[in-house]
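Hemerythrin-like domain-containing protein structure dump, as promised
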Amino acid sequence: MSAVSAEQPLLDTREMLVVHSLFRRELRLAGGLVRQVRAGDPGRAAVVAAHLELVETVLHHHHGSEDELLWPLLLERVADELAPVVQLMETQHERVDALLGRIGELRPEWAQDPTAARGEELAGLYDGLYAGLAEHLDAEEARVLPLVARSITAQEWLALGEAGRNGIPRRHMALVFGMLMHDGDPEVVRLMLAPAPLPVRVLVPRLGRRAYRRHAQRVHGTPTP
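structure tokens r here:
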């Protein structure tokens, strides 16, 4: 594995904040979306369930790429500094994973038969997921990203981002990029696209913005949730 030299400038980790902004927004709104679905309206429940399943898929692959590509490097290079954080991260991941597992069982049942009881149970699970994930993201940003900035190479960081993108269904790529753009720092969004060919840098933001506005109008009732 590559080592980071003392002369290397700190890695710009702001891309992670843009990714986290997607999860914070969509999961903060998730419980309310479920509660707004009338009992006995499977059409509307299917729209909400498909949206939430996509968000959970992106989250799952985001965490998976971190587990596979980021944590081993940090444990190799800054084990002493990381040790106090590892237990916290593992505990938070376990809580999030447990909630995602239960949601993954209940969400399709609710989508097919959206009873009031199922809806309230599912909404409560999403409330708990948001609370647990927000706590985890806060801790990761405050305690892990500073270690990443001085311990991970630019090439390794690019590989992590590529792994996360590979987990996104191709048909949803523009939509997910639009989700990232919505609350993301525009400067960082431009940096994320910088390695791409010029046509991609021009078209993807336009397509992403349009795709998310349409999606948000259908799901949230507004193009700017």
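Residues 23 and 55 are 7 Å apart (CA to CA).
lmk if u need the other ones
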